[in-house]
């Protein structure tokens, strides 16, 4: 639920910007993959922090829970400042890189620049959210996200269109309203961690740089960061292909990807829950119980998201029309994209849950390899070949999604069933030091 609410920031932006026109939607759509790519590094490292904390929690080592949390906060804080500075100054070259045309370049750069200001806030809340999940406290982050999303519902139209003497700022207003609400959530999260009344207490003395701990965090987190960066990079390359078909197809792709995010986010939620439970059970040396968690999560994700996919298939056109009500061509194209993707959503959920098992075991390299296979060896080549060498044109881009979802899920499931990851744990080769 927290992840689904988090994705509402982009959906709310898309809804209101759709009232400005197709170019506004296209400008933000171009920014999204690059923003996701930048955020991937921090997200992977916060996952590493949550895995370490989960295993410490399973081993009932509260001292290590607090210390690991403090180290995670300081590492991510300085990383977020660096990324915010770099991306702000590289915004225009990045937008040109993904193929922003002259009609949307200025607005896409503006949106990206303002969004980069919020990286520090966004990363700090990611840290809070991951650490709370690591100890099994999942409701508190959800309540905070719910409050900020409701606030964003009010601020978005205010900053985009203005009210009374307050002048609207268009695309820039959408980014500013998101940064404000993200800042509020980050401050609340850090206050809770410093007070220490919710299972984790961070302290400034424990934030001194610890090379050994940081090395352990990077060993777990870098493969996860690369896995998410691989996903974001593939999305970015697809945008480059999409832009060659014009603004209407870019807008259709942007809406379809946001609908896809409604599936990816809950799938990631199942994955994170699986990571936490697997990590805690491994910390308690309950490897068989960790496998049972993986089996159950796989069933829930596959059948649950398959059901959601069927509903999205049936209601694809009215859902698309909700975002861009006055453009029949974009509605038609985006609805087709959703219908082609939707039947494979259960497979996407299955793959994400299995990644959660491997991540919880500290075996993040496997998740990385599966993502590289599915996205770079299957999705992008298939998208390129079908859209450029067949009569399908842009529809070939849409078909690359279900094909890659199927093959990636198949590979992940086969590896999971071989039990090799369990064998590594029994031998103690992937246990995280306590």
From TrEMBL:
Highest rank taxon of the organism: Bacteria
Alphabetized UniProt keyword annotations: Antiport, Cell membrane, Ion transport, Membrane, Transmembrane, Transmembrane helix, Transport
Pfam families: MatE
UniProt-listed GO biological process terms: monoatomic ion transport
Gene Ontology cellular component annotations, sorted alphabetically: plasma membrane
Stretches that traverse the bilayer: 20-53, 73-90, 110-128, 140-163, 169-194, 232-253, 259-279, 300-324, 336-354, 366-386, 398-416
GO molecular function: antiporter activity; xenobiotic transmembrane transporter activity
Subcellular location: Cell membrane
Its membrane topology: Multi-pass membrane protein
Main location: membrane
Protein name: Multidrug-efflux transporter
Species for this entry: Brumimicrobium glaciale
């Amino acid at each position: 639920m927290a992840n689904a609410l988090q994705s509402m920031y982009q959906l709310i932006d898309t809804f209101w910007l759709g009232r400005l026109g197709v170019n506004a939607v296209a400008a933000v759509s171009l920014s999204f993959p690059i923003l996701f790519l930048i955020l991937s590094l921090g997200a992977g490292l916060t996952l590493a922090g949550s895995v370490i904390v989960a295993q410490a929690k399973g081993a009932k080592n509260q001292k290590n829970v607090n210390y690991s949390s403090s180290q995670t906060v300081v590492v991510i804080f300085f990383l977020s400042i660096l990324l915010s500075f770099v991306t702000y100054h590289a915004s225009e070259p990045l937008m040109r890189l993904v193929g922003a045309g002259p009609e949307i370049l200025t607005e896409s750069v503006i949106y990206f620049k303002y969004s980069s200001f919020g990286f520090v806030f966004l990363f700090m809340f990611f840290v809070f959210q991951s650490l709370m999940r690591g100890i099994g406290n999942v409701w508190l982050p959800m309540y905070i996200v719910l409050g900020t999303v409701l606030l964003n519902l009010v601020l978005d139209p205010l900053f985009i269109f203005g009210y009374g003497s307050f002048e609207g700022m268009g695309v820039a207003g959408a980014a500013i309203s998101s940064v404000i609400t993200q800042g509020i959530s980050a401050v609340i999260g850090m206050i809770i961690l410093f007070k220490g009344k919710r299972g984790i207490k961070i302290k400034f003395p424990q934030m001194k740089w610890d090379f050994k701990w940081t090395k352990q965090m990077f060993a777990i987190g870098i493969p996860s960061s690369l896995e998410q960066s691989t996903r974001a990079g593939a999305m970015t390359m697809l945008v480059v292909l999409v832009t060659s078909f014009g603004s209407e197809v870019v807008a259709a792709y942007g809406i379809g990807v946001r609908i896809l995010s409604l599936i990816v986010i809950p799938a990631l939620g199942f994955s994170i829950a699986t990571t936490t439970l697997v990590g805690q059970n491994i910390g308690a040396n309950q490897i068989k119980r960790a496998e049972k968690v993986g089996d159950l999560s796989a069933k829930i994700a596959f059948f649950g998201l398959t059901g959601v996919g069927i509903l999205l298939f049936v209601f694809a056109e009215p859902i698309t029309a909700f975002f861009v009500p006055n453009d029949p061509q974009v509605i038609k194209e985006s609805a087709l994209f959703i219908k082609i993707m939707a039947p494979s959503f259960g497979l996407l959920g299955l793959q994400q849950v299995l990644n959660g098992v491997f991540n919880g075991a500290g075996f993040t390299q496997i998740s990385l390899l599966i993502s590289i296979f599915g996205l770079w060896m299957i999705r992008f080549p298939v998208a390129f070949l079908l859209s450029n060498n067949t009569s399908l044109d842009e529809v070939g881009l849409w078909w690359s999604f279900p094909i890659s979802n199927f093959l990636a899920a198949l590979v992940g499931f086969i590896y999971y069933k071989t039990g090799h990851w369990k064998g590594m744990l029994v031998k103690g080769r992937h246990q995280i030091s306590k």
